[in-house]
Design brief:
The complex is a heterodimer of chains A (401) and B (235). With 401 residues, chain A is of the alpha+beta class. Chain A folds into two domains: 183 residues, no CATH class; 198 residues, no CATH class. Chain A contains 14 helices and twelve strands. In chain A, the strands form two sheets. A six-stranded mixed β-barrel of chain A has the order 3-4-9-6-8-7. A two-stranded antiparallel sheet of chain A has the order 2-10. In chain A, a hairpin with a 2-residue loop joins strand 3 and strand 4. In chain A, helix 1 crosses helix 12, helix 2 packs antiparallel against helix 10 and helix 11 crosses helix 14. The mean pLDDT of chain A is 84. Chain B has 235 residues and is α/β, with parallel strands linked by helices. Chain B has a single domain, classed as P-loop containing nucleotide triphosphate hydrolases (Rossmann fold). Chain B is built from seven helices and eleven strands. Chain B starts with a strand and ends with a strand. The C terminus of chain B is likely disordered. The chains are: A alpha+beta (401), B alpha/beta (235). Chains A and B meet through helix 1, helix 11 and helix 14 of A and helix 1, helix 2 and helix 3 of B.
């Protein structure tokens, strides 16, 4: 048997102690894995879903709420803005593109987004089935929506009022599914996308009592917000200020708001990181105590190995190998545990139709986990290994073990 | 062979042990006795090159151990010394087979499974190879430990209180096994003990007369032992 094989046998000669150490280390490493994966996922989501959007313009209120509701579809929007104001924005020379977003209804918690064809183009969405809408009350489903609700091209559905499940149903206004998008792993997967005119039609039909009333509603049409792309980066200096001061709308820059959000999330992750650190320190102490006791219990065995010709370095290597086994096992368990935590989180958030988090990722930062495991285990083993290296064989012979 | 001249060892506490000179031919036997603290374990450790003498000469199996580096001492010990400790130190986590394999690992030698089978067979414990130490009787464990001691065909076998806590029959058996193993291999056998049964068993054996080396006070000399008795002198 090799040094590693003997170390393995010695490690499991004390199964309870080995299990406890693996468990403690795994919990700490699992927490770190979880934090790293969630951070990675959040950054990836922000990078992907916010890409190409320079500014979000909507009703006055919290700018972060605007970003969360209109881009990440996690929050409710602060209100609506007049269509004429958004159309006026299109004429601004600093604006290259304006994509309107109209929210208000949902299907079993999945948001129905009224927009233009530019929305699909912006997200580089491709159709897995069917076609894009070409008339009001035709809808294209995100991949998650289609899979989750089991809707197929040709089927009809009616939306409910509000952005969460449980609002009153627009049973008299049914949408027809004309297409299903290919899965992207982004926010668009969990949206139901239709023409802005569909959203107006649903609400105007529900609210108008006569033709005159309908005409009045048409004249006062609104959208929830607009995604804006600049013609030049210089627009970032003036356009948001112009919107905020010269119109009744609010402009929110996704880059700024996401930085703020990540900072706020960072405070939370710092607490979790500190907790994981505490777990790791505890685990390190536990490994230290276990190895220290192992050296004490096996002083005679170790002395015998010296009598059999083992250099002190080989005996030290044996103990270090035990620590490294602990590190390896704990790193594996911690990584699996962390991935399971993330999968569980994704499942829970998926149920709530919020941001998805998927496990089984291996971002390069995850190498921190095995490195930390090795560091903790080797650090905890140093003193016991030194003790074994320096053990006085003569004293052991005299004491008869 | 074991040859010592004016051998002296100093403890960290400052006390110094002076050992009597001894000449034991290859294949000879030494009965090392003395009260607790008389230096038996230290003498064994010196002969095994585990510790260094501060003064005097020591040659074992044709090699002068004075001035041997730690690395050379480890290598020499692995090739030359077989050790049977009082407490057997069979690793509880390993089977009999693996305990013997551990000796090859410790020595840094290539594993010889055939040799393990041969030694276990010679000592009548071949069928215990897959058992854990906890599944062995005291006598069986003693034989396994002896198998480990003679595995590398050492020139010198050191046994430290091999009969302690054994009944008369088991003690007789243990000594006979040691004598037979040493004779088969032509090894010099050193038994450190204060058990009179060992001396009787050795004297009744058919091998060469044992050299009686008593430490700590005037000792009964035999033809090969001369010079001064070991003394413990405060520095």
């Amino acid at each position: 048997m090799s040094t590693l094989a003997y170390a393995w046998r010695y490690l499991w000669a004390r199964p309870m102690s080995a299990l406890l150490n693996v468990l403690l280390l795994s919990l700490g490493l699992g927490s770190i894995t979880f934090l790293l994966l969630v951070s990675h996922h959040v950054e990836r989501v922000f990078e992907r879903d916010l890409a190409g959007i320079d500014l979000v313009v909507g009703a006055k209120g919290s700018p972060m709420q605007l970003i969360l509701s209109g881009v990440l579809h996690l929050d409710v929007p602060p209100g609506n803005v007049p269509l004429v104001a958004v159309n006026a924005l299109k004429k601004n020379p600093m604006v290259a593109e304006v994509i309107p977003i109209s929210l208000g209804d949902n299907l079993q918690g999945y948001r129905i987004v009224g927009t233009s064809a530019a929305f699909l183009k912006h997200y580089q969405a491709t159709l897995a089935q069917g076609r894009q809408w070409d008339a009001p009350m035709e809808a294209v489903l995100g991949a998650t929506v289609a899979r989750s609700l089991g809707l197929q091209v040709g089927q009809r559905f009616g939306g409910s009022h509000g952005l969460g499940a449980g609002g009153h149903a627009h049973s008299d206004q049914a949408y027809t599914v004309v297409g299903v998008l290919a899965a992207q792993g982004g926010v668009i997967d969990r949206l139901i996308i239709t023409d802005t005119a569909s959203v107006w039609k649903v609400h105007e039909d529900a609210q108008a009592v006569d033709e005159e009333d309908r005409q009045a509603l048409e004249d006062d049409r609104e959208v929830t917000m607009a995604l804006v792309r600049y013609t030049s980066p210089l627009a970032a200096v003036t356009l948001p200020r112009w919107v905020n001061t010269s119109t009744d709308m609010q402009a929110a820059a996704p880059a700024l708001e996401v930085t703020r959000l990540l900072h706020m999330l960072g405070l939370g992750t710092d607490v979790l990181r500190a907790f994981a650190g505490m777990l790791l320190v505890t685990a390190g102490l536990s490994v230290f105590i276990a190895l220290w006791n192992a050296v004490r219990e096996r002083r005679g065995d170790l002395a015998l190995l010296r009598m059999l010709g083992a250099p002190a370095s080989r005996i030290s290597a044996l103990l270090m190998a035990e620590a490294l086994w602990l590190a390896l096992l704990s790193a594996l368990c911690g990584l699996v545990l962390g991935q399971l935590f993330v999968i569980a989180l994704g499942w829970m958030l998926g149920l709530q139709n919020q941001m998805l988090a998927t496990g089984l990722l291996w971002p390069p930062t995850l190498w921190v986990v095995p490195a930390t495991a090795a560091l903790v285990a080797v650090g905890a083993a140093l003193l016991p290994v030194w003790q074994a290296y320096r053990s006085d064989v003569l004293q052991l012979l005299q004491s008869k073990g | 062979m074991i040859e010592t001249r004016s051998l002296q060892f100093s403890y960290e506490t400052g006390s110094v042990l002076h050992f009597p000179d001894v000449d034991v031919a290859q294949g000879g036997m030494v009965l090392l006795s003395g009260a607790s603290g008389s230096g038996k374990s230290t003498w064994l450790a010196l002969v095994a090159a585990l510790v260094k003498a501060q003064a005097g000469g020591l040659r074992v199996a044709g090699k002068s151990l004075t001035g041997l580096s730690a690395h050379a001492a480890d290598d020499w010990r692995a090739r030359t010394i077989g050790f049977l400790p009082q407490k057997l130190y069979l690793s509880a986590a390993l089977t009999v087979q693996h305990n013997l394999e551990l000796a090859y690992w410790a020595a840094g030698f290539k594993l010889q499974p055939a040799r393990i089978r041969e030694v276990l067979g010679e000592l009548g414990v071949a069928d215990l190879a897959l058992r854990l130490p906890a599944q062995l009787s005291g006598g069986q464990a003693q034989r396994v430990a002896l198998a480990r001691a003679v595995l590398m065909q050492p020139s010198v076998i050191l046994a430290d209180e091999p009969t302690a806590s054994l009944d008369d029959a088991a003690a007789q058996d243990a000594v006979q096994l040691l004598l037979r193993a040493a004779q088969q291999q032509g090894a010099t056998l050193v038994i450190a003990t204060h058990d009179s049964r060992v001396a009787r068993a050795m004297q009744n054996s058919h091998g060469p007369a044992p050299t009686l080396l008593q430490l700590g006070r005037t000792f009964a000399t035999q033809d090969t032992v001369s010079s001064h008795p070991a003394q413990k002198v405060a520095s």
